[in-house]
């Protein structure tokens, strides 16, 4: 069919708009505004964190307000906001201290296990410490704990900048301590699987099944899974 002379060409009829890609929106924990540099500023931040930690542990998250913190620490509210824009950012910094302490404690505990201890003993000790700490932090501030779990998962998946996990040191320490009992041939692969199991699964519990953190069989099931992973013999050599 030909178009009549002088007639306008048909306009393009707009089709349906392309579907937008779904966006993942994750609320991340508030962060400390800046790091102190001078000795006086370092002392101020340490005093704020110590006071905040005492209120948090003794009276609970609801009792920790900027006015209460200023009163107990003996500082002006403006001094608090200079380093911590919100109380949540202070609690997040306190939780970072908790995680550093947990990392040091679990590695020290691994080294202090008796000579008669087994690989399974070490795995159970590591998991018991991790699950107990997650439950404790969840009780102190459940909202922040869930935000931190989401943020840590994004770091594990390399979607945001990584800051390191305590398990990145704990798993190698476990393997070193019980090297003779780790039978798996490909230790690099087993270490990779163990690392992601010990980091991702407990966070999934925090986000979806927090009650599992304190159930005894959770510890046993996770420990058996990791033990089986690290003691798996070469299946190909076994079948030949």
TrEMBL record:
GO molecular function: DNA binding
Domain HTH tetR-type: 42-102
Domain of life: Bacteria
Annotation: DNA-binding region: 65-84
UniProt keyword annotations, A-Z: DNA-binding
Annotated stretches, region: Disordered: 1-21
Record-linked Pfam families: TetR_N
Protein name per UniProt: TetR/AcrR family transcriptional regulator
Organism: Pseudomonas denitrificans
């Amino acid at each position: 069919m030909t178009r009549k002379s002088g007639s306008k060409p048909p306009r393009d009829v707009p089709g349906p708009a392309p579907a937008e890609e779904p966006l993942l929106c994750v609320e991340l924990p508030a962060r400390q505004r800046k790091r102190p540099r001078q000795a006086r500023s370092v002392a101020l931040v340490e005093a704020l964190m110590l006071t905040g930690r005492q209120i948090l542990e003794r009276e609970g998250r609801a009792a920790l307000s900027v006015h209460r913190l200023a009163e107990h620490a003996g500082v002006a509210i403006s001094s608090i906001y200079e380093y911590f824009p919100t109380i949540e950012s202070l609690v997040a910094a306190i939780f970072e201290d908790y995680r550093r302490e947990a990392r040091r404690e679990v590695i020290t505990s691994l080294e202090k296990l008796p000579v008669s201890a087994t690989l399974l003993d070490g795995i159970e000790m590591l998991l018991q410490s991790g699950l107990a700490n997650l439950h404790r932090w969840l009780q102190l501030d459940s909202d922040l704990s869930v935000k931190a779990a989401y943020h840590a998962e994004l770091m594990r998946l390399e979607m945001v900048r990584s800051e390191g996990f305590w398990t990145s040191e704990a798993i190698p320490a476990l393997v070193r301590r019980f090297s003779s009992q780790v039978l798996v041939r490909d230790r690099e692969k087993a270490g990779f699987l163990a690392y992601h199991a010990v980091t991702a699964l407990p966070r999934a519990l925090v986000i979806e099944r927090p009650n599992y953190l304190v159930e005894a069989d959770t510890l046993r099931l996770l420990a058996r899974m990791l033990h089986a992973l690290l003691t798996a013999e070469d299946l190909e050599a076994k079948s030949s």
